[in-house]
Amino acid sequence: MMGRAHLIIGTGVTVSIMGLAGVPVTLPAVGVALVSSLLPDIDEPNSLLVRRAIPTELLRILQLSLIGAALIVGYYGSEYTPWNLVLSALIGMVSFLPGRTLRHVVMFLIGLGLLFLGQRLSPWNTIAGSVLIAASLVTHRGLTHTLYATVGWTALLYFASQGREGAESLWIAGGISYFIHLLSDALTNHGIRPLPPFKFKIKLKMMSTGSKWGKNVENVFILLTLLLVWYVFMGSR
User: Are 152 and 39 in contact (CB under 8 A)?
Assistant: First the structure.
């Protein structure tokens, strides 16, 4: 499914389930549900979540900065020739990496920065840093689209939110929304492998992402989600 559909369906169904179960639907919980509905696709550099977090404009600025750094190293490091030229060439090569690869590089570096420089944000810096580093190293619809990742993300939220107000709402919202993303992708022709290294896939082949039929299927599920949200929070009162 496309990012827009994941966002609406994952968040809408999650808050509806919480409402029906009597779990408080707080603003932080909705925020966690929003992020979690897109989080499995963090392994795809062109996904909605990654493109919003690392926009193309930022990549262009980074590329120009790297080119400038390469020129500076090559010019002012002449006393270390030929190593200055080697380093300059390496920096220049990174600046010309494809956008997908460059986003992975940026994700990895941001993850390292959060782990080592974001202690004031603990424990969220550790969570975000670890997720970014892992996502930059795995293939699309690989590890992040498994039940292992669902349990891991839910556990991270559970332990990180302990002792905080509304802790239960946070990890429940995150776990449900993440799992709904996997269920949504199981509807596609590609499907998911929920328990690698076991090779079996869950794929209902109801749609192909990006196709006209796929968009129609997504719109139907979005409409059903909106009706569910209306019923839970307005219609049943």
Answer: no
Q: pLDDT tens digits, residue range 76-112?
A: 888 888 888 889 899 888 888 887 788 888 888 888 8
The first and second tokens of residue 227, run together, are 């009706």
Residues 172, 174, 177, 181, CA torsion sign: negative
Tens-place pLDDT, residues 152-171? 999 988 988 887 777 899 99
**Separation CA 108–CA 205 (nearest Å):** 34
70 Cβ contact list (under 8 Å, min separation 6): 88, 89, 91, 92, 95
Give the integer Cα–Cα distance in Å for 122 and 227.
38
pLDDT band of 236, cuts 50, 70, 90: low
Residues whose CB is less than 8 angstroms from the CB of residue 44 and which lie 6 or more positions away in sequence, other chains included: 50, 140
pLDDT of 18-67, one tens digit each? Answer: 999 999 999 999 999 999 999 998 887 777 777 777 788 888 888 899 89
Q: Is 237 exposed, middle or buried (0-12, 13-18, 19+ CB in 10 A)?
A: exposed
Distance set, CA 45 to CA 42, 106, 108, 140, 155 (Å): 7, 10, 12, 9, 25
Give the number of residues written for the chain: 237
CA dist 72 to 77, 93, 105, 107, 117, Å?
8, 15, 22, 25, 26
Q: Rounded distance, CA 36 to CA 176, Å?
A: 8
